[in-house]
Amino acid sequence: MMRKLKNILITGGCGFIGSNFIRYLFAQPNFHGKVINLDELTYAGNLENLIDIANQYEGNRYFFIKGNICNFDLVKQIFQDYEVDTVVHFAAESHVDRSILGPADFIQTNINGTFTLLEAARVTWTEEKKNGCLFYHISTDEVYGSLGQTGFFSEDTPYRPNSPYSASKAASDHLVRAYYKTYGLPVIISNCTNNYGPYQFPEKLIPLTILNAFEGKPIPVYGKGENIRDWIYVEDHCEAVWLLLQKGKIGEQYNIGGANERRNIDVVRLICNLLDEIVGPLSSGPRENLITFVKDRPGHDFRYAMNIAKIKSTLGWRPKTEFKLGLTKTINWYLNHKDWVERIKSGEYQKWVETFYGETKHAF
Ligand code: NAD
Ligand code: TYD
Questions:
Q1: Structural domain includes residue 306
Q2: Residue nearest to atom 10 of ligand 1 (CA)
Q3: d(Cα 11, Cα 238) in Å, to the nearest integer?
């Protein structure tokens, strides 16, 4: 049975990965369907991220709906009105540090929101209708917990989440799996490593470092900067999702990763050096001097690293973007989108910076 991919409900399409994915999708010559983007526009969602897509396709192949994934009546209505056959579920509260300060929104959106979407899919995609339908759930490597110096997460690694964020994502993954096993809902789950690239909200390590380094502000590095993440360029993640949407096997889980492990301190130093090359050093000297070690994150996972053998062997996918090249593109994007940054840095974001980094006594 060919998958329909006609009317795709994308949740959280105004966030970082969601907006990159929608742009990627409309650039695919073999995609002829419609996209319904359901987004609550929290602090992390920005309509501006998709202005080009809205200008070209709104009302024709692209439909934006401002709303909450926890609103069952709304979600069910969308399934019916747009004859949704595919869900790509990105919407989530996504920042670990915020989940430590206030977990409630994470439980609500990540667990109850996913449950609500699954319910709407279950009641709409009846036995007769569900052929060719797909509920694609976007998840993270963080559900697997933390690795020591060696080893990799595989699809069989037991879940051991350590933060309220990863625990809420783990719970949502479990619900998606249960809907497959219990109700036969056609699902796929993918778990990806840390993404970077254009449109990432500057609370996360890479955009925060780029902006602070550019502006000559202190660059906060937690603990000793020795924690390791596996970084993937967002477009490579989008490509993997697009392939899985078309060819992934129902009921399966796939790990996606960058095969690019780096210590935080090395990532930060590389960004500083690249910026020095691109715009010249600061009058006070090289940007590395801005690095400031701050109090560590509680429960800070030491290392994430993915075994991506399954998606490599089944779909022939592999990450393509070399890290230095991806970082250079990302830096240039932020340098060329100062208005976007300025608008983001007003209001809600500024409040967060004051609440969170206020404690570490660094002026931003
Ligand atoms: P993001 O925080 O940039 O965007 C989240 C989007 O969801 C925003 O547009 C926000 O407005 C929307 N949203 C939040 N709560 C909502 C609600 N209740 N109803 C409707 N919309 C809501 O997140 P991101 O970094 O783009 O991550 C997207 C997904 O990918 C998440 O599920 C995340 O767990 C997963 N993921 C992210 C990474 C990463 O490195 N960023 C890595 C692996 C997996
Ligand atoms: P982050 O971008 O928040 O992603 P995640 O916690 O989901 O991996 O953080 C990436 C790494 O960088 C993580 O080990 C925490 C660290 N970090 C800092 O050292 N300083 C910062 O200001 C931030 C935001 C993160």
A1: no
A2: 45
A3: 15
Ligand 2, atom 7: nearest CA belongs to which residue?
96
Return the amino acid letter for 214.
F
209 inside domain: no
Domain residues for the domain of 76 are 7-197+232-256
Tell me: the pLDDT tens digits for 118-148? 999 999 999 999 999 999 999 999 999 999 9
Select which of 24, 62, 144, 165 is catalytic. 165
Percentage of the chain beyond pLDDT 90 is 93
Q: Which of 144, 205, 302 for a ligand 2 pocket mutation test, highest count of atoms within 8 Å of Cβ?
A: 205
Does any domain span residue 36?
Answer: yes
What span, in angstroms and rounded, lies between the C-alpha atoms of 302 and 240? Answer: 26
State CA 339 to chain mean position distance.
Answer: 22
Q: Is 29 in a helix, a strand, or coil?
A: coil
Establish whether residue 201 lines the binding site of ligand 1, counting it when its CB lies within 6 angstroms of any ligand atom: yes
Beta bridge partners of 36: 9, 63
Q: Given the residues 39, 85, 93, 141, select the one marked as catalytic.
A: 141
Split into its structural domains, the chain has a count of 1
For the record, the structure tokens of 18 come out as 């969601």
Q: What is the pLDDT of residues 22-40, one digit of tens each?
A: 999 999 999 999 999 999 9
Place of tokens 């967060």: 352
Residue matched to tokens 């709304």:
74
Which residue of 17, 74, 165, 244 sits with most ligand 1 atoms within 8 Å of its CB, as the best mutation to test the pocket?
Answer: 17
